[in-house]
Write a structure and sequence with these properties.
By secondary structure, this protein is mainly alpha-helical. It has 16 helices and four strands. Helix 9 runs antiparallel to helix 10 (200-229).
């Protein structure tokens, strides 16, 4: 079946799969966002324990998706992996450290003999929620704004900046996307608490926090969208030459009407979920905003990689810019991986089943005080 597809179709297929994984990762970062809200929502130790355990039962989903996203990107577009991870290693190391301390914090926060104290691990969870979201958003921003690398004829990479990736934070567009992801993660985290915790006090505080986080999220998102629409990107012409194109991503949006419609639909779902939570007091807002987040981020990846775009532009050597054509694996590898991808629906079905099983009963104070139950 997949053998009959041409190489470009396989490359586009895997760009869509990798992009979907990235979109799911952004949604699952509600865990990171929620971790930055323990102090604002938890007034007592029991309330804080309820918040920690609500997220503690889901942090593996985010971590696993991050690893899967990275692995799929490596297997399908190895030149990006070797270029970005090999050159911008400081930013990726900080992201890795942020996620390692998250795992440690959940496991050791309430362990007997915890001489560092609960607040230390809660501080590390805040670090993960702040640094992890902003840096991932900043790194994804370079898909549109570019990075400082060059490749020779053998694809040997030279990183042309001494900060090795951290310089991306000096670009306001990248930072804008970073803070978009940060505030979106907090909005989703608040919605998740409202949906899963049986505490009227926590729900009331979460609703109060919604406006404080939804407003900067919307402002940052709109600013980033406006910035990339007027940004000069790069396009690949028929002979393989990379040339600058003013308003590249605006053109992409209109050249791909399906992407345009889905992007607008995703944005509307995000705003709908926020509105239902703030003005109608709904506990189901996370599903509207969550689905909208996945669709919107997925379509942003489509803007970055399709329609003869360079999904990782080089600022110092435009002809070194990466595209889905020059950065992909061989046809044999993509065909083999495509057969493996047929198992994805079954994996997603299991995740949905596990999610529903974990969330069948809302977290309450009595459960946290019951010493026979495992708590983080």
């Amino acid at each position: 079946m997949f053998e009959q597809l041409d190489l470009l179709t396989l490359q586009q297929y895997w760009w869509m799969i990798v992009s979907l994984l990235g979109a799911l990762l952004v949604f699952l970062m509600f865990v990171q966002g929620g971790q930055t809200l323990f102090g604002a929502l938890g007034r007592t130790e029991v309330e804080k324990t309820m918040l920690v355990n609500a997220l503690g039962r889901k942090w593996e989903f985010t971590f696993t998706t991050l690893v899967t996203f990275g692995g799929a990107f490596f297997a399908s577009f190895p030149l990006f992996y070797s270029t970005s991870f090999g050159g911008a290693y400081w930013v990726w190391m900080l992201i890795l450290i942020a996620f390692v301390v998250q795992a440690v914090s959940y496991e050791f926060r309430t362990k007997p003999g915890n001489w560092l104290g609960r607040k230390t691990y809660e501080g590390l969870l805040f670090f993960n929620g702040l640094v992890g979201t902003i840096l991932i958003g900043t790194a994804v921003g370079t898909f549109f704004t570019g990075a400082n690398f060059s490749l020779d004829i053998m694809n040997h990479m030279t990183w042309d900046h001494p900060l090795h990736g951290l310089e991306a934070a000096a670009n306001w567009r990248n930072l804008c996307l970073g803070f978009t992801v940060f505030f979106l993660a907090r909005v989703l985290g608040l919605m998740y608490f409202i949906n899963t915790i049986d505490s009227e006090a926590i729900r009331m505080r979460a609703k109060q926090q919604m406006i404080l986080n939804a407003v900067p999220f919307v402002l940052c998102f709109l600013t980033f969208c406006a910035a990339i629409m007027v940004h000069t990107g790069y396009t690949v012409v028929s002979d393989g030459t990379v040339i600058p194109e003013p308003y590249k991503y605006w053109h992409n949006l209109w050249d791909m009407p399906v992407v345009l419609v889905l992007f607008l639909a995703g944005v509307m779902l995000v705003l709908m979920g926020i509105g239902l939570t703030i003005w109608l007091g709904s506990r189901k807002g996370i599903w509207y905003t969550g689905i909208g987040t996945v669709i919107t981020v997925w379509m942003l990846f489509m803007l970055a990689g399709l329609n003869d775009s360079t999904f990782y532009p080089s600022l110092t050597s435009p002809q070194s810019s990466l595209t889905i054509q020059n950065a992909s694996s061989s046809k044999f590898t993509l065909v083999t991986m495509s057969y493996v991808s047929l198992a994805i629906p079954f994996v997603l079905a299991y995740i949905v089943y596990a999610w529903r099983s974990i969330n069948k009963v809302p977290i309450n104070e009595a459960e946290m005080l019951d010493e026979t139950n495992h708590t983080y």
